[in-house]
């Protein structure tokens, strides 16, 4: 019997329009009526995730920044936070500036970018939080601990950077695509899977009692941890390879379809 559903947000719960479909809401409400806990686990910062938690009337813990921060549903009490080592952050920023790659720094619930460009405008479609344009990030960041770095560029350029960073920091940071044009970097000692386990332990729930649904590389760890790992129909191929079940795409109510098939 399943007791918890862990849901990614972008590409899973919502599409590019930022809307939770009525069909998805109905399926989630049906699961809640069966006393199943719904946990939102996203690369977004907590403020953006909480908008959807409120829409679904959830009051569970919120996992943000791919597991780098866990906060209560009131956004008041931080249960966990893990930042990137400052020296590594400095080198990541240097690489981005040298290669002219747009980036967003996540410092807790604050977001910083160097300037407004088309890439940052694209990112704003995936976040409800304000992005502070602060000029040269290599000068600015030193007064802030950084929980996540998001790089925004075409996939080929990001693949090159990913390979270079993996050679230098594979033991210190996770480097994963959430979208082909979004490369996310955060501390190696956390992930969606690690935080899902911590939250499950907190609630006394075993991995076999969990369904985890996602579409990006940053979802693989929780898909592998859960008793039932579900990949969206629109998921990256390496995500589908790790899943126990592949549901319909987000645009076809993939979350609702998975819930109905697995629970009812």
Could you give a short description of this structure?
The chain is built from ten helices and 14 strands.
Structural class estimated from helices and strands? alpha/beta
CATH C-level class of the largest domain is Alpha Beta
For the termini, the CA-CA separation is: 11 Å
Helix content: 25-40%
- Give the H and E element order: EHEHEEEHEEHEHEHEEHEHEHEH
Average pLDDT number: 94
Number of separate helices: 10
CATH homology superfamily name of the largest domain: HAD superfamily/HAD-like
| Unreliable segments of 5+ consecutive residues | none
**Percentage of residues in strands:** 15-25%
Radius of gyration: 17 Å
> What is the global morphology?
globular
Please name the CATH architecture of the largest domain: 3-Layer(aba) Sandwich
When the domains are counted, the total is: 2
For the largest sheet, list the strands in their spatial order: 8-7-6-9-11-10
Characterize the largest beta sheet: strand count, sense, and whether it forms a barrel: 6 strands, mixed
Task: Enter the CATH topology name of the largest domain.
Answer: Rossmann fold
Organism: Maledivibacter halophilus
Pfam family, one: Hydrolase_3
InterPro entries: Cof, HAD-like_sf, HAD-SF_hydro_IIB, HAD_sf
GO molecular function, one term: magnesium ion binding
């Amino acid at each position: 019997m399943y007791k918890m559903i862990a849901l990614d947000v972008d590409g899973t719960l919502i599409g590019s329009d930022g809307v939770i479909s009525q069909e998805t809401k109905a399926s989630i409400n049906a699961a809640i009526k069966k006393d199943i806990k719904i946990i939102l686990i996203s690369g977004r910062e907590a403020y953006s995730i909480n908008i959807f938690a409120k829409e679904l009337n959830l009051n569970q813990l919120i996992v943000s920044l791919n597991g780098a921060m866990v906060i209560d549903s009131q956004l008041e009490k931080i249960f966990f936070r893990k930042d990137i080592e400052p020296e590594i952050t400095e080198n990541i920023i240097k690489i981005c500036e040298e290669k002219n790659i747009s980036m967003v720094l996540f410092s807790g619930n604050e977001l910083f970018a160097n300037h407004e460009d088309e890439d940052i405008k694209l990112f704003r479609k995936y976040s409800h939080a304000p992005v502070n344009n602060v000029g040269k990030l290599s000068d600015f960041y030193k007064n802030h601990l950084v929980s996540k770095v998001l790089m925004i560029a075409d996939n080929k350029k990001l693949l090159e950077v990913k390979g270079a960073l993996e050679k230098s920091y594979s033991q210190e940071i996770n480097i994963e695509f959430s979208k082909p044009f979004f490369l996310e970097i955060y501390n190696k000692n956390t992930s969606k899977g690690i935080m899902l386990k911590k939250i499950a332990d907190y609630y006394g729930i075993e991995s076999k009692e969990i369904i985890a649904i996602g579409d990006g590389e940053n979802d693989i760890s929780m898909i592998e941890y859960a008793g039932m790992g579900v990949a969206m129909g629109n998921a990256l191929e390496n995500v589908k390879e790790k899943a126990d079940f592949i549901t319909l795409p987000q645009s076809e109510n993939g979350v609702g379809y998975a819930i109905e098939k697995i629970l009812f």
